[in-house]
Amino acid sequence: MTAPESPPPLDPVIHEASRLAIVSVLNECGSASFSFVIGATGLTRGNLSAHASKLIAAGYVEEEKRIVDRKPLTEYRLTDAGRTAFSHYRANWLRLTSGENGKAEK
Amino acid sequence: MIESSSELPTPLETRAFDEAKRAAWRAARMREASRAFVTGHVALGVCLPGICIVLGTNAPFVLIALLFFVYPAFLFWAIRRIHRQRGQSLVKVTDRIEVELAANPRNVVLPIIAWIPYTILCMLAGPVLLRRMPTSIHLASLAIFPMMCVGYFVHQALRLALWEYFLFATSIPLAYLPVLLQPEPPAPQSSLAAVLGFVSVASMVLAIVGAASLHHRWEVWSRSLDDLGSDKEAGEVAS
Prior knowledge:
Strand content of chain A: 15-25%
Strand content of chain B: under 5%
CATH class of chain A: Mainly Alpha
Number of domains of chain A: 1
Oligomer: heterodimer
Shape of chain A: elongated
Number of helices of chain A: 5
Number of domains of chain B: 1
Number of strands of chain A: 3
């Protein structure tokens, strides 16, 4: 009899609710401005700034700041590492939840 | 197999995952709306060969020439407008393809270069082939690409709940309907020719209405987000 497989780990950087929402939104886009991410996620400006900083520190998101029409514009882009981490996160999540279903059926 | 319940996602985590999925869906809708003019032009571009086959047999060539000059001119205008709009607003989004294409512009140019001869070939060879080939083969060859586009638009309409994509999807069969209904071209000045021409041109109107409505959604979204104060939340704007 083989030992039971350990559950797949969920990336703690992405697992936080706000960061998960930010990464999910950025995964749908090539790049998105600060205001766009706020509109899609419903986060507050402070929340978005704080969580984006953590994602940037983890190397999952790139930030570009510019001045457009005398207004500051911040754009975010998911890095290749971020995209890979998110796809692993989703795969692991699905594996976890399908295990949950299996257990529930039993 | 999962051994302990502590390893399973909690209801709160499941809710967060679902909320993130919903945020991604909202982002996809907004992204699609942001490039409404380009999508509208794709629908128009797919309709053009059908329109030209119908009008080419019934209407003066001036009309076809107009379609071919007016269409690229509007496409150019739409792209410029999107660029200007992006330049003025703080609400910006680009597609993943755009980022990849910016790194390799050849990938943009080649499909456009391939599309132009395809359209011209359909316009010129359509009426000739119609007389020399079995109708079924001619129509099947003509239908492959438009049907793929219809499938894409229907898929997007259902996935993103944007009715404008149904208009794009409807415009394509409408453009080719006269060819399907009347494989043999009617007499140029008959009332039937006028009806078929009208049906064909109506497809263009559908695509234009779809693009205009989708663009209006983007204008409303982006204006609301531009106006947001620092202490306001924007969730309801995008929902």
